[in-house]
User: What shape does this take?
Amino acid sequence: MSSIRLIGILIVVGLIGGAYFYMKNSTDKDEVLRVSFPVAQSATAYEPTKIHFAYEYIFLENVFSPLVEFDRAGDLQSGVAERADWVGNELHLKIRDNLKTENGTPITAADVVFSLKRLLVLTGNTHGNFKDLVCPGIQLKTVEDDCPDIQSEGNTVIIKASEKKPFLLPMLAAIDFAIIPRSSCDPTTLKIVNFKETSGPYYVAKDDGDGRIELKLNPHHYHASKDIPQIVQLVPELTAGASLDAILNNKVDLITTVDSARAEDVLPFARLHPEFNLFKSMNIQEMLLVFTERGLKNLSKDRRLYIGRMVREAFRDIYKPASGYEEVSEFFPNLGGGGLDATQKKKLAALFVPADANRANKRPDTKIKLGLIRRGDTAIWQSAIQKYLPEANVYNETHVPDFRTYPSLDDMPHAFIASTDTSFMEDINLISYSLNAGLLGLTKPERAKWIAHYMSINDRDARMRELQKLHFDALTEPVIVPLVASPYTALARKPWRIDLSQFYANNQLWLIKRN
Assistant: This one.
């Protein structure tokens, strides 16, 4: 072979190799989705039985999967269980035979039984009330203790109930009920210690401990596809407005309402920047004023109504010109389960007529402590509230008061303002979370009794009357004062396209796809 020909062959081989290297690296880059995230913490800080904030739910729903899932239309579909059938009073859940962790370890019925018992042992879930439906009266101390209502036969899990329960299957869709491979947990504490062994579409490949977490697609998962992100990098963006700057300056590819990017900023930004794809849900995110146990005890109904009127005026000033926002007076949407009837609406409206709002005997006679729970800057809330309610000592709060322990009642705020999801459908997990967070009134012992009674009612019309009454009482007491509602928004750099649900403020990353 001549040297010229050999050199020619080497050049061609080099060009082909270089082209392959370029294409491989280009493809790798195209498969990475950089996601703005609002906290800087390690994966080990996340726990399915203790979900208090939206970002916790979103992280967990991407690394673990539940037995069943809701699709974009709000209908149940298969999850870890490929089939779910009622056989008399028993729910039979056939577990997928080919589901594995990233390293190929099968996820079986034994892992499902372990996960459900683990939840009962830790007893901390906030979405749903599993203990009222299975093994009532039995206090499991370890996952080895017998729970006769949770059994397995082959690769089928059988959950026994006293009767067919309409709420049991939808409840299992919450990520509180995530299926956690036993191999990922410490055998003594049950804490999740290995986030590479997960049941979800993604597993933790890298974690620097300060919020920069790299997730990789589990090729064995039923949601795995070449069209979705193969690698997800969580990028902490902790200051107000940082997410919009980050996506504009090509530091991230996806921002959502969960971080500090607000709908009032994202919507006009998207109109000016066609290089991004916008997602906007129905108005399912609501800001509301909530009176705590201290507020209900120390403030009369008239004074709570006065405070509610003033805070509502403040938020009207802030959000009336904002894109995508609407003033609301109910917690549940008008067309949703639990919405008020015409008579109830009329009675509620009469309580918030502002004509006598300035009567001296209705103003707080002492300073009230008002916490603000919000990612990013709260300055606009503070200035507006203090304009209308100078009696308020306004401060930034980090946790829902009912999820904290205070030395005494006097250490608790009188009220707080936060955002939460609402729903156009009867969502037992949302109802349960709202009760546990103190959003619908009732004392803690009363909440457990109410939800147990509610879930025992099989007739939907009868349940709706119970929910409607609870809703009306919380609004007129008032325990809560709804302020404004907005859509859940997300913005993705093209060619990423967002295919999320209009009804849920979740962020399943496997629904972010390349065009």
Observations:
- The mean pLDDT is 86.
